[in-house]
Amino acid sequence: MKTAAIYARVSSDQQKEDKTINSQTAALMTFASSQGFSVPAEWIFEDEGFSGATLIRPGLERVRDLVAEGQIQAVLVLSPDRLSRKYAYQVLLTEEWLRHGVETIFIKAPQSQTPEDQLLLQFQGMIAEYERAQILERSRRGKRHRAKQGEISVLSGAPYGYRYMRKTEERAAYYEVIEEQAEVVRQVFDLYTAQALSIGAITRRLNEVAVPTRKGQSCWERSTIWAMLRNPAYRGLACFGKTQEAPRQRRSSRAVRMSSRPPRRGTRTQHETPPDQWIQIPVPALVDEQTFDLAQERLQDNKKFSPRRTVEPSILQGLVHCAECGYALYRTSTCSSARKIYYYRCLGSDAWRYQGKARCNARPIRLDLLEDTVCVGADSNVTHPADRILTRGWKPAAFVPTVDKCRLFADEGCSP
Ligand SMILES: [Zn+2]
Q: Distance (Å, rounded) from C-alpha 277 to C-alpha 241?
């Protein structure tokens, strides 16, 4: 069952008009139970006699904290104007919550029927955009300043091992150590550094003994362990500003390839910033500095010696994907006694990526063979380079690569 919080507000004027806060809450409760949301009594927040023109309202602040703590999936509100009288604030709040994966549900959304309403709506949108940009800039500067003062509240939530304790009137926000989780973090670092287990082996071990994850539902992923080993909070210095928004780099993905719709343009995503731009905020350390540094060294070595390392690029890197399953092919290598042999391999065929079950049975293909064939194909304008590979003895079911020809040509500086 999904959990939700309820937010209701009446200003002092409205109370006179006999619009009580109880009727709002009752309507929201009815809606919640009809839609299958569970709303604990302590998650019903009411601001009685507060103006919708300001964001400083005790109930609203509690909802924002609750969202940041990651405890709910939705916030239920009667209508947008209960959230705020200002359109920009409505946008600010709904977007803030969306960033935490929390949906804002208005049970009475205003209907816009007439052309005047439509026009007003568009004006509101434009003004909101401008105000939002201003608010974001101001809050970004404000946040950097507060991060430099060591305030925990600028960090979004707490990583595994900690509980984010919201600020109260008496004290600032802080991280509280969750001892059972902290023990798991220490074990992971120990297994990786002292016992030299691989990230994959650690992941398997955690899943075997069924250590609960933070949400307690899913199982552990390698990427989670990898991120844990890199997180400076565990050595006692949480970092602010580790990522910044930038345009999405990858132009093609499996989801895009498998759907018939064209890829979305102009999407933005979070990119990691250089560590010297991070602002450190002291938090309780879970591992000692030496262990943490050792883990970083090992991660660096992994990067250097990984067979998937592609510092020297290969021609078709990022250009080919598997026709069988749609996953991209990546370059990898094996060492025979005499030499190193390079392959392109389907991501879907790696069982370790998908909890021990490969999603595709395509076999790896020799790099020289594929590149040779595709280049010959591109020269003579053969539309299906895969045909040539098949004629070289590959079984049709085993492997059919397809090449994003437009990109191949574009990268060479010609038009497709
Ligand atoms: Zn495949």
A: 7
Q: Which residues is 32 bridged to in the sheet?
A: none
Is residue 386 scored above 60 in pLDDT?
Answer: no
Give the distance (Å) from ligand 1 centre to CA of residue 340.
23
Mean pLDDT of 357-369: 89
CATH architecture of 2-110: 3-Layer(aba) Sandwich (3.40)
- Label residue 111 exposed, middle or buried (CB < 10 Å: 0-12, 13-18, 19+): exposed
The helix (run of H) or strand (run of E) holding residue 105 is strand 103-106
CA of 272 to the centre of ligand 1 (A): 29
Please give the CATH topology (third level) of the domain spanning 162-305.
Answer: Hect, E3 ligase catalytic domain fold (3.90.1750)
With beta carbons less than 8 A apart as the criterion, state whether 6 and 39 touch.
yes
**What is the pLDDT averaged over residues 198-206?**
91
How far does the centroid of ligand 1 lie from the alpha carbon of residue 206, in Å?
A: 28
Q: Measured at the alpha carbon of residue 160, what is the angle toward residues 103 and 238, in degrees to the nearest 5?
A: 100
**To the nearest whole number, what is the mean pLDDT of the chain?**
80
Q: What is the ipTM of this complex?
A: 0.97
At 43, phi and psi to the nearest 5? -105, 20
Strands 365-366 and 340-346 come out as antiparallel
Going from the Cα of 390 to the center of ligand 1, the distance in angstroms, rounded, reads 16
For residue 360, how far is its CA from the centre of ligand 1 (angstroms)? 5
Please check whether residue 197 is in contact with residue 191, taking contact to mean a CB–CB distance below 8 angstroms: yes
Tokens of residue 140, six digits:
């970004």
Cβ contacts of residue 243 below 8 Å, gap of 6+? 270, 271, 272, 273
CA 382 – ligand 1 centroid, Å: 23
Q: How confident is the model at residue 112 (pLDDT cuts 50, 70, 90)?
A: low
* Boundaries of every domain in the chain: 2-110, 162-305, 320-411
Q: What are phi and psi of 300, to 5 degrees?
A: -65, -45
pLDDT tens digits for 46-88? 998 888 888 888 899 999 988 988 888 999 998 888 888 877 7
Which residues, including other chains, have CB under 8 Å from residue 325's CB and lie 6 or more apart? 346, 348, 359, 360, 362
How far apart, in whole angstroms, are the C-alpha atoms of residue 28 and residue 35? 10
